[in-house]
Amino acid sequence: MRVCAIIVAAGSGKRFGSRIPKQFHVLGKKPVLAHVLYRFDSSPIINGICLVVKKKSIEMIRKKIVQRYNFKKVCMVIGGGKERQDSVYNGLINIGDNWDVVMVHDGVRPFINDQLISKVAKAAMRCGAAIPGIKVRDTVKAVNDYDKIVETVNRENLWLAQTPQAFRYEILKKSYEKARREKYTGTDDAMLVEKAGYKVIVIEGLRSNIKITTAEDLRTLILLSNG
To answer: Hey, which residues does 15 pair with through a beta bridge?
Structure first.
């Protein structure tokens, strides 16, 4: 099984509230993105990594992260698009078709581990498409435009989706091409695959597999890494 990971790190981090994009903030003496790349570079199931970043940052990232930390499996650093979906598509069209499984991972989820990477990749090879997720524990309320509760949602079958999301190459490519032809967007890769008519399975993820969206998220991860 040949597996390629597309690491998406082209975001500007507007919600993070900093001039420095969140993927470059330091976590345990290394940039967040370096932690992410280490997890995939050291995973025995990963054969290649396509890193998608802002076009103006390509050379800087190649020198200061890929070369500095000696990541051997990063076979390309390419420019992203306007939205995350465009960035993933840029990765897909650049990696070629010599892959059985393609994994897509957020460049700001540094606490992924090799066990989950391997488990998701193997599930995708077996079933066609697989994502990690965690079951919702809290009570979920649906509210209207005036912040009034209209329903308490049954949480029994609710999961929070995570990355890495993994797919057989041809399934992900066809799903992205359909989305571009019909001009719709999805909140994650699995949504595009679902809309293209494929089934996606969910496997148990990690509660520590946090996506850094705000400065508070980064502080939480710093506490986790120190604890």
So the answer is: none
Task: Return all residues near 212 (Cβ < 8 A) that are at least 6 apart.
Answer: 16, 22, 23, 25, 32, 108, 109, 110, 218, 221
Out of 3.30.365.10, 3.40.50.2300, 3.90.550.10, 1.10.357.10, select the CATH number for domain 3-226: 3.90.550.10
- For the chain, the structural domain boundaries read 3-226
Crossing angle between the packed helical segments 169-182 and 84-95, to the nearest 10 degrees: 130
User: Do residues 20 and 115 lie in contact, with contact meaning Cβ atoms separated by under 8 Å?
Assistant: no
pTM over cut 0.90: yes
Q: Mean pLDDT, 10 residues at a time, over the chain (227 residues)?
A: 96 60 82 96 98 95 96 97 95 96 96 97 98 96 96 94 98 98 97 98 95 74 63
